[in-house]
């Protein structure tokens, strides 16, 4: 019986890891602002710069939460707390890294001259709205 329980728990843990690689997420308020305050706080240099916003590499983020409180426009959320209107940004932070992968450090990569399609399609975001 114990063996069966262990196997069930192991299956659940594996399923959780593989289905949910995201940790912290950057959402729409960052678009066209990019003041980069969060970059200074990240201990593993996993916040990458796109053309119009920054993106968190989900495999590199260690889930420390240091970036969240320094964002002046509350653009950073733990994955379970992303507001409904910005729920697409959870996938956007993952999909931005298609073709980029896990470079192991944003500073050596620098500006990545692209954005996720949902960001690229946005009209210019007015800074006074933030
Ligand atoms: S601190 Fe907020 S607004 Fe500034 S770059 Fe980071 S996520 Fe974007
Ligand atoms: S939660 Fe921590 S590791 Fe993840 S992006 Fe923010 S500062 Fe970096």
UniProtKB/TrEMBL annotation:
The UniProt record lists the keyword tRNA-binding: no
Ribosomal protein is among the record's keywords: no
Record Pfam families: Fer4
Xref: SUPFAM superfamilies: 4Fe-4S ferredoxins
Cofactors required: [3Fe-4S] cluster; [4Fe-4S] cluster
Role according to the record: Ferredoxins are iron-sulfur proteins that transfer electrons in a wide variety of metabolic reactions.
Alphabetized NCBIfam families for the sequence: FdxA_Actino
Protein name: Ferredoxin
